[in-house]
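[Automated response] Your request has been received and processed.

Submitted sequence:
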Amino acid sequence: MNKAFDAGLDLVEISRATDIPVAKIMDFGKYKYEMQKKKAEAKKKQKVIEIKEIKLTPTIDKHDYEVKLKNARRFLEEGNKVKFTLRFRGRELSYQQQGVEVLQNVIQDLESLSKVEQMPKLEGKQMGMLLSAK
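Generated structure:
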């Protein structure tokens, strides 16, 4: 402690895990700053995965379907998850099989890029499905 005081530095305990404590003479403020920079650098390199939502209907037209599929491909290539929501309006609820077919087509068309994380499931007047990038 006297050596650290004479040098104008701090005595910093590095490890408590062993029987003999490991200490180092250093500038604690500078050490704290370096650790903060390392943490910020590690945080910068992290990829935040977002969930993008695409809404469909059971009577979707071919061109509209292709546009939605193109957007889904782009989202998956960026590494995001894609949630497909198929909304039934009015009497469409009696044609649930059409909705299942639309979502099955989505699964087949995006099979090379994605895996199904949540199978199509009916929740009230909506059917939802979640895909994630392979």
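Summary generated for your ticket: DSSP finds four helices and six strands in the chain. The two ends are 55 Å apart (CA to CA).
If you did not submit this request, please reply to this message.
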